User: What shape does this take?
Amino acid sequence: MKPSRLFASSLSLVVFLMTMVGVKAAVNQLTNLPSLYITTKDSQPITSKEIYVQAVLEMAATDTTGLYNDTAQIRGRGNSSWNLAKKPYRLKLKDDFRFMGMPAKDNTWVLLANHADKTLMRNALAFEIGEACQMYFNPAYRFLDIVLNGKYIGNYMATDQVERNKNRVDLDKLTMADIDLPTISGGYLLEIDGFASGDSVWFSGTGGYGTPVSVKYPDDEDINDQQLDYIRTHYSAFEAAVRNFVVGQTDTSNLTRYLDLTAFARWYLAFELTANPDGIWSIYVKKNRNDDKFYFGPLWDNDISFGNCNRIYSVANDGRNESIMVKCFSNGNTKTMINKILSIPEVQKVIYMEWDKIRPGLEARLLHVIDSLTTTLDASQERNFSKSVWPVLDRVVYNELTARGSYEAEVSFLRSYMDDRYDFVDQYIRNMEPQDPAVLFTPETDRYYIMHCLNGKYLYAEPYGEGYRLAASTTFPADSAMARFEVVMVKERFQEAVYYLRNEAYNQFVYIDSAAQFIPLDAERKTLFTLYDSPNDAGKPDPYVGLVSTQTTATLANLGIDANSTNVVAWSTANKRAQREYRFVDSGKLITAINRTFQEPQVNLADNVLSGRGTLTLQQLPAGVRIRVYGLDGRMAATAMTDGYDTRLTLPAGVYIVVAGNERVKVMVR
Assistant: This one.
């Protein structure tokens, strides 16, 4: 591991501070923004991204909140941005401090130069987009003017370092002693990074994509071999879960074990809105302790976003009306992996649901951010772009599409781009809207049904020997209870929609004994069935339905005779519809004594259904409202009768359709 670096000795620091006493230059606020004066020891230039230089910081501002006036260390930072004339820096303060009033109390802070972005606000706008998309962390920021060793060097943006901190990336602390579960499981901060091979601690995933990953937390000198092996193995399992997923399969449990779909959806929406060509070259993800999932975010490095990159775009096509996934840069197979995730319908559903949640008012909010920052930055940008500082408004300094000649023109382009970009993303995501499935037949739990077969026969129970058995006839039995069945859902298997049948007349269960020539009833044993709508009737209000034994995968027949005149207990699923599909006719009799003439009150579901983590709350609906909750496969996931108070249902994460009478609303449970 990379050893920790030693800085100037305490003696040299004392001498340095003594030389500052009595010779301090005037510290004035240069514009409406705070001014930061940095004086390095012996006016030493800052030429390295690795070696810190000792410095004293002094600040001047009308608002004195979070002003830092003390010693610090400063070095360069960045990849491509470090090669530009206006340099970005990293500060290390003497102590943890809420620099300029930002939420995190920490000693490491970043000073972004934004030299390739002539609006000076693309990174800030991206952070605001992340906030609007409700990403788990979005760096705070403050703008300021900087004077380095007596020379004004321009407008800068102070912001969080992406690292572990309660008010940054909130993670459990790992120590060298954490080498066993559960503590070794987290937390970790990773960067899927095109420059990973240049870092001290990095690896390539081995799950099929080989994506390069830098370990950002624990720090280089604070991670041991066991922890590195653990996170490499776990990340590779995430890669494999994506690689091995077959688009179209309904079971997403292995994917969602390793990927938090909500965090991914929010990251992706922010990524599309910013149109950042580097957005896949560098992706931050975190993993919490005792949690297998990876959480995408936060956003970082957006100075070439919003149509500011001539390597993939041009003045004629600045990318505002196409998905950023079309042309963005990729480190190895990262783009392939992200595209695979985006192709999965369940992921698309979550993206759509998240967009539907954040889109109201979003466009106006983002345009307001641009307008507000334009006012805030006006005086400072004039100094920054003046002839004696950075007179670059009429030239390309990095890979901008063009030089527009004025700050006003640069901001006008950004505003127009954001306006059009929102419209494109809105339509693009709306095209992901999942189609509501036909709500498949699901028996109610409080009533008896008559099972009327497609061939015209009724299924009923009758005495046989010392017990009872099923029979079938076109003549309805005189004792109607013999033909009434309760269709009971097995609560422990509600996701699979598994049922059993109980006859009302004899209070016994349908039990298929493969050794018998008939279907008996049994006082204790029961056969479990899943239901399927007839292919010809699926989605119809009153469909014919088949029952498939979970034990034998055969379908319940009505004791018809096969071609060889042999009595059969069940037809195979490939056999005749007429003897194995039933219409479940509501008998008109409830299992519990509820007044059938009671009219359910009308409700507005959109205002009364709240979703949470693993729960769905029906908020203060009137008593007597029957609620049905369906999964996107059309099968009922839960049902409830409201009592006038809050009704809470526990459900796995997913997208559901909540139905009450003719009202329906689509919700997402996390």
